[in-house]
Amino acid sequence: MSKILPTLKSALDLHELSNDQLKQAADEIREVLCNLVATRSAHFASNLGVVELTLALHSVYDFRRDRLIWDTGHQIYPHKLVTGRYAEFNTIRTKGGLMGYPNPKESEYDLFMTGHAGCSVSTVLGLRSGDQLTGEDDRHAVAVIGDGAFPSGIVYEALNNAALYRRKFLVILNDNKMSICPRVGGIAEYLDRLRTNPLYTGLKTEVVRVLNRVPVFGDPAERFLAQLKEAAKAGLHGGMFFEDLGFRYIGPVDGHNIPVLRKYLAMVRDMQDPVLLHVVTDKGHGFQPAEEDPAFFHTPPIFKRENGRAVPVPAKSSPAYTNVARDAVLEQMRRDERVVALTAAMCQGNKLEPVRDEFPSRFFDVGICESHAVAFAAGQAKAGLRPIVSIYSTFLQRSYDQIFQEVSLQNLPVTFLLDRAGLTGPDGPTHHGVFDIGYMRIFPNMVVMAPGDSDDLSKMLEFSLQHSSPCAIRYPKANVFNVNSERQPIELGKAEVLHWGHDGMLICYGTLLDACFTAREKLAREGIDVGIINARFVKPLDRTTILKAIRECPFVVTIEEGQLAGGFGSAVLELAVDEGADTRHIKRLGIPDIYVEHGERSELLADLGLDSEGIVNTCRHLAQGEALRSNRRMGIEA
Predict the structure, then answer these.
(1) pLDDT score, position 201
(2) Is 599 within 8 Å of 426 (Cβ atoms)?
(3) Which of 128, 168, 263, 283 is labelled catalytic?
(4) For the segment 223-280, what is each residue's pLDDT rounded down to a tens digit?
């Protein structure tokens, strides 16, 4: 039973707690987190790793006025627990409850929704600039960024810019030796050298000893740290990278030692130059199974604790589209040695571990660097390979310019697998992959597809690897659906007519096809005969089939799990207008001009009228309207 957390009205109350009480609060936070993942899937290991850092930050700063940005925001749970949201915490990641990321609507302590990596240094620098220009220069500003996010290109744009402005602010590099999966690349190796260099290892003890003897930080401690910095700089290969960029580098610091963290934070708070504080933490700290396997426990399935072990709670599930895509990638890589696979720190999320293990020389995890991933793939394609870029829809947005310049403009055969396309459920608006239809279909040379079922998905990948232009395939975070009938092969720009309806037609782009089948059955019982077209392509559209439906059917409903603006329905309307067809009987179902909040995917689809019942209601209304118009044309009073 928590004793301290329920008493916190705001994080300011932490200023009055002793180090021992803060340690007790850390234990309580970990207990709350363990209880949470016994009820639902949630971000876990990353939050366990920042408990002490969170408490130390809030016990030194007043972030009602000072500035704090978490990069990325999935490590926000301890922050929420100490900023007045303890009583609501059991609602996190449920519809209408707390968001699993920072949310300015919830608290004055949350400044940005941060669901994508790398932007914290830029936004904190912008906050400092704004505060200075508006006469609020006494505010402090802190960015907490993990070592997995640190290689993102925008981080170095911000670090470079920070050296120019020389404004005081603090970047905390939370080094836990992990991204979601083990991190990769030169920055990771550099941080390893910083953390394990014998000179630093010996001097860290001296730092703690001096800090413990200096209750109020002033010149003695600062002079010692300056001397320490120069000594360490001489002992590291290539010099101090951060110092050369204009930051005062301090660390490494034990990120699980609250007293030492508080003393370091108090010392750097009033330094006038940009400071980078290198904090070393363990992802999953305090729960041994998560410490041993932080990748699995990033967002683990529901489990219960037994004798310090995590025992998964059995759950009924069918294969997901992500599994189908992974198996299709494996099959194609076995067939053709030119096929390579790339991802951006999402090996686990995209379930690509078997691909990595079977084809280590043809698998590339570039870290959280989506722009680089796409440009890198373009180079591979130019050299004769057939790269598959597997990235979540929401994250692929970060490489928009490279999709344009390096792939589409060059007409290179790069295949994009857009996992999590559509509504991602509890992850909410930062992660819903609802914009890709609009941002991919506008590029010349690009072929844009969405499978109606799992059979489509594997065949679309095979098609794309035989096609001479770039291709994109979107699929949701959902269990698979299969059409139980004879299927038509995948042909460029060809839709699949599954049923022809005399009263109306459903044209579905993507895996809401299962809802269309259910809706058709319900409508048939009411005497309304609707047909189903599996569109398969938004670019190029099947002009012949779609125009036939528009011209012959009393009503047409387009259905997509994406934004209506610029989406599949828009493409259908554009086609109809270009061909001079009547569009008054066309209804588009999709996501309106809003950001959709978090909740279970089924709940969100129902709210948006994209479940079977919503489709039925739409068709029923259109059928009634058409009957009324028909009666009027025949001179019959309704």
Answers:
(1) 40
(2) yes
(3) 283
(4) 555 545 554 444 443 337 888 888 888 988 999 999 999 999 999 998 888 999 999 9
Assigned CATH class of 496-633: alpha beta
Whole-angstrom Cα distance, residue 562 to residue 569?
10
Tell me if residue 88 is catalytic.
no
Q: Regarding the domain delimited by 321-474, which CATH topology (the fold level of the hierarchy) does it fall under?
A: Rossmann fold (3.40.50)
Contact between 144 and 176 (Cβ < 8 Å): no
How would you write 503-533 as a 3-class SS string?
CEEEEEECCCHHHHHHHHHHHHHCCCCEEEE
What DSSP element (H or E) covers 545? helix 543-552
Residue 85 annotated as catalytic: no
Burial of 467 (0-12, 13-18, 19+ CB in 10 A): middle
Q: How far apart are CA 562 and CA 418, in angstroms?
A: 13
Residue 509 near residue 560, CB atoms below 8 Å: yes
Annotated active-site residue in 52, 139, 351, 370:
370
pLDDT tens digits, one per residue of 36-90: 988 888 888 999 999 999 999 999 999 999 999 999 899 999 999 999 999 999 9
pTM: 0.89
- Whether 353 is catalytic is no
Active-site annotation holder among 30, 128, 398, 536: 398
Which of 72, 78, 43 has the alpha carbon at shortest distance from 57? Answer: 78
Task: Tell me the longest C-alpha to C-alpha distance in the chain.
Answer: 97
Residue span(s) of the chain under CATH 3.40.50.920 come to 496-633
CATH class of 5-289: alpha beta
Neighbours of 370 (CB within 10 A): 29
CATH 3.40.50.970 residue window(s) in the chain: 5-289, 321-474
